[in-house]
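Example with several molecule types.
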Amino acid sequence: MSTRAVALHEQSAPTPGLDLQRVRSDFPILRLKVNGKPLAYLDNAASSQMPQPVLDRLIRYQIQEHSNIHRAVHYLSETATAAYEGARRKVQKFINARHEREVIFTRGTTDAVNLVMHGFGRALLKRGDEIIVSQLEHHSNIVPWQMLRDEKGCKLRVIPCNDAGELLLDEYEALFNDSTKLVAVTHVSNALGTVNPVKRMIACAHARGVPVLLDGAQAVPHLPVDVQDLDCDFYCFSGHKMFGPTGIGVLFGKAQWLEKMQPYQGGGDMILSVTFEQTVYNVIPHKFEAGTPPIAAAIGLGAAVDYLTEVGMREIADWEHELLTYATAQVKALPGVRIVGTATDKASVLSFTIAGVHPHDIGTLLNEDGVAVRTGHHCAQPVMQRFGIPATARASFAFYNTFQEVDQLVAGIRRVQKIFA
Amino acid sequence: MDSKQLYQEVILDHNKKPRNWGNLADATHRAEGLNPLCGDHIWIALKIQDGSIEKVAFEGESCAICKASASMMTANVKGKRVEQAEQLVREFREMATGRLDVVAQANHLGRLAVFAGVKDLPSRVKCAILPWHTLHAAFCNRRTTSTEGDADPMGLSAANESA
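Resulting structure tokens for the full complex:
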């Protein structure tokens, strides 16, 4: 480790609010060794790890509470229903939604965006209507809107970004016209880490009467999110990127929109009454939760929300900012390494390329050092096209990561450069 | 497995100085190969006369494993009969997917056996196989090929094909 790094370590002890040793001890998987090296898990933007309280909650549900929800009057069904609806209230509080009926459980962010595409887009948009997306979107906030475009004859307009990976707000404002019916943008870019100025962008859209959907998959695990303060109309995120299980996600939607929207899927639980002549749909949020949901996963997400609340989202954001600042300085100092995405406001993500080395070779070699990073286009090919590269290597941090793990990454990059010298 | 097994000198050397790099103006067969998951993208051009590979060239953008595999492949098949090259395509695929043990079983791979270690890295198997896949497509007069879908070397169709 360089003297500079040591100095930085001393200056940047974790903030008093975040006890790094304690939070690390809550995550059993972080004790793993990979290829004989301590695991440095830096692929949190793809999926994060679960702390012991979430794992314990999942097991308790399975051995003491499991039953179907909203169905029977017996003990287990009542218990499971209370836990499931309790998780909804936890999520509501966590993102500060006005009503718990504005919180819909989905399979994940992708499912949430698709729900809005079907329920809002198919029901309320028509030929010639326009949807604004950005250059920075994950495929899950592009492809559903393209499907809608092709089906309804709508148009997609794209907000460009500059070389730092920041959206160009003047160009954004110029995209609006009388046909603009929705803005669908990411809160935090999964490929570059850019935090978009979404509050300003929402105000701009609302001034023209246009609702806004935010893809919050990369924001909720890293920043305090308040949907009332943002005033977004829809907010989508995933459980497994915020220290909960896979298979569960959330669509927040303002009640006024959800009431107008068509159900996404038909089936049990989303109805009030069914005859062969007519079906009366259930009220929100149940109208959008057809069939037996992933009950355990929802309850696990509730436990993850409790855990994050206890650690503190402000403390998490502050510590991750220090980590990212440190990592950026270390990686930037390496000759031949280019950081892709240099926005002023960033969260969690450090995407980079090494001259003369394909990202997949970087990934394989870093894995041998126990360092887990993602390599590829990160389901954001338009971002790669914008920067003229096929792929990047991406380190993405969570609050349980350490300076030592950043050093492990940097040493790994040096080894890659040596092998390919 | 560690890098000494896969990222050997010979692979690093072919990555740095790929043999038969470029295009052929007088090609009789061409194909484009794409590995959409990691972005490996190569073009292969061949001049085949009387069933023999007179010239072969490749270019594109890819990881070291793919580029070295393509470079060594072109060096290897040049001057060979198409059916000999097709035999190598089969053996290389079987080695890379762990169905051919290059030490225990007879084969014609020679120095190409440096890629045997890729079988322990399932996410990189496609990188090594793509050039061979593309060569086969060129022989069959298919202009484009991919390592996904029906052509997935790790998928069911490949297993069926070898069965």
